Amino acid sequence: MSKVIALANQKGGTGKTTTAVNLGIGLARQGKKVLLVDSDAQGNLTDSLGYQEPDNLPVSLASVLTKIMTEEPYEANEGILHHAEGVDLMPGNIELSAIEVSLVNTMSRETILRTYINTVKDRYDYVLIDCMPSLGMMTINALAAADSVIIPVQAHYLPAKGMTQLLQTIARVRRQINPRLTIDGVLLTMVDNRTNFAKDISFVLRRDYGDKLRVFQAEIPLSIRAAETSAQGKSIYAFDPNGIAAKAYQAFTKEVQDIGEKRRAKQHQADLGR
Ligand SMILES: Nc1ncnc2c1ncn2[C@@H]1O[C@H](COP(=O)(O)OP(=O)(O)OP(=O)(O)O)[C@@H](O)[C@H]1O
Q1: Is the minimum distance from the CB of 46 to ligand 1 under 6 angstroms?
Q2: From the CB of 26, is ligand 1 less than 6 Å away?
Q3: What number does the ligand 1 atom closest to the CA of 230 have?
Q4: Residue owning the nearest CA to atom 15 of ligand 1
Q5: Fewer CB within a 10 Å sphere, N or C end of the chain?
Q6: What is the DSSP letter of 245?
Q7: Which ipTM was obtained for this model?
Q8: Cα separation of 248 and 159, whole Å?
């Protein structure tokens, strides 16, 4: 049984892409089959995995979604790239901006990405969708396609206002399109443990949201090495295996895997009871 996770936060630069890369490759290192889906028109995930000119790729998520919208046939593995560290990638690029516009006039406009993911997900244990920094149509599509959401939050500012908006959108998607959508939790990123401010934010987040939402135990530290990995086309495990960011992403991967295992066990029990 595969699990589809959206990495979402409408605020830009909160660590969604870095988390997609290092969670995805972290899970692959545990023997899981992983597909990363770049649903952001900036193509940063695609770029971070070493495809430095995402706009020149012949096939990308936008081309496959166009085929779905125009009811053209496509191959299930069409456009999927293989990364040396064991994950697959459905690349994204600037063409997704045009898709975002044309979705508005399309039938089933909220579920085009779900249609695509449903055709490929059985080959994977995990499908991770890196979302755009907006609450536009592509993000709604990602939430409609996902089983759960992980919210990376940059520990530089109090996230209360932005979080409320995101949580309301998730609740609306759950009511109207995707009742099974859950929130796996909030991940604190770029935590500068030298400052009291970062500690305060961690404390406030756990205090204000901790009874409603999981705030992951693992916190990703602010790390120059983590920032540098995106230009290297590899994960933090390959680039700086003994650094603090690699250790934190490893611990985070373990937490995500534990949630996945519990869900599988619960589903298994439910199937037995049928
Ligand atoms: N732990 C970290 N320490 C320091 N820098 C980091 C860390 N994680 C990510 N960065 C850097 O911060 C910037 C934003 O990170 P990232 O691209 O992962 O965020 P994002 O939420 O995907 O951004 P966008 O909203 O633009 O898609 C990047 O330059 C990245 O290299």
Answers
A1: no
A2: no
A3: 31
A4: 15
A5: C
A6: H
A7: 0.98
A8: 21
Burial 47-72 (b: 16+ CB within 10 A, else e): bbbebeebeebebbbbbbbbbbbeee
- Residue ranges of domains in the chain, CATH in brackets: 3-273 (3.40.50.300)
Cβ-proximal residues to 169 (8 Å cutoff; 6+ apart), any chain: 135, 139, 140, 143
Tokens representing 88 are 């697959």
Single-letter amino acid code for the residue at 64: V
Structure tokens at 239: 């680039």
* Structure tokens, 104: 């508005």
- Residue showing tokens 């660590």: 15
Q: Say how far apart CA 139 and CA 180 lie, in whole Å.
A: 17
Whole-angstrom distance, CA of residue 93 vs CA of residue 96: 6
Distance 14 CA to ligand 1 centre (A): 6
Tens digits of residue pLDDT in 172-193: 999 999 999 999 999 999 998 8
